[in-house]
Amino acid sequence: LSPSVDGQPISPYQTIDLQAGATLRFGKAQSGCRSYLAIRGQWLTQKWLGSASMATQHHSLLTPDSLLQKNQLFRVLSRPAIPFRLLPPRALPERQKTQLLNVLPGPEFEYFERKNIAHFFAQSYTVTPQSNRMGYRLERAVPDFVWPRENLSSGIVPGTIQITNSGQAIVLLADAQTVGGYPRIANLDNDSLDQIAQLRPGEQLRFQLKARTDNAE
């Protein structure tokens, strides 16, 4: 997001030292749609259940300091300086015209018809405007989708991919609920969950099945 200090561009993915009175700004998005800023020290904000993260509901009562507003002041209890850190090039996120995302089979994967699974992995999807931090709704549906059994509400986590009754895929993100009733065809791995969170409405993605590497007996 084009970071700069006192009007001078700075590089992302590294630590920076700010002098007293310096101004850090973010500008035009060069890629992606979210940026993360970590400040050394302890944020002196009100906490709920031991966390200063914003509550998705009733945040004005539970975590009133956690949703930053224009001109808001907040305090951070400074701590000793940390060594300079720079993310190596091999660890930088890769951006593709159609983002390829790795998934593992979901709990109901085996109950999907083979033709549905084939369509799920063969086609590209577009992120729709009906998307937020709870989940991304994807344009294009799995054709001729009919779920053959009654599904009870089950646990879900960020990265779970559900297929609705109309065949539309929904990818659950950071603020997802904890249970859902739609069948779970797959689940994103951690790296792909980070990648999809940077996609904007209108951008495209595809899924590929990731080989299991665990040695569970």
Condensed summary:
This protein has helices at 59-62, 114-122, 190-196; strands at residues 4-5, 8-9, 24-25, 42-43, 76-77, 98-105, 125-127, 135-141, 154-155, 160-163, 168-172, 179-180, 184-188, 204-209.
List keywords for this structure.
217 residues, 9% helix, mainly beta, 14 strands, 3-stranded antiparallel sheet, 7-stranded mixed beta barrel
Structure characterization notes:
This protein has helices spanning 59-62, 114-122, 190-196, and strands at residues 4-5, 8-9, 24-25, 42-43, 76-77, 98-105, 125-127, 135-141, 154-155, 160-163, 168-172, 179-180, 184-188, 204-209. The protein is mainly beta and 217 residues long. The longest helix has 9 residues, at 114-122. The mean pLDDT is 89.
Largest sheet: 7 strands, mixed, barrel
Quaternary organisation: single chain
Q: Radius of gyration, Cα only, in angstroms? A: 21 Å
Unreliable parts: none
How many helices? 3
What is the general shape? globular
Mean pLDDT: 89
- How would you spell out the order of helices and strands? EEEEHEEHEEEEEEEHE
Task: Please tally the β strands and state the result.
Answer: 14
Distance between the termini: 45 Å
How are the strands of the largest sheet arranged? 6-13-10-11-8-7-14
Question: How would you classify the helix and strand content by structural class?
Answer: mainly beta
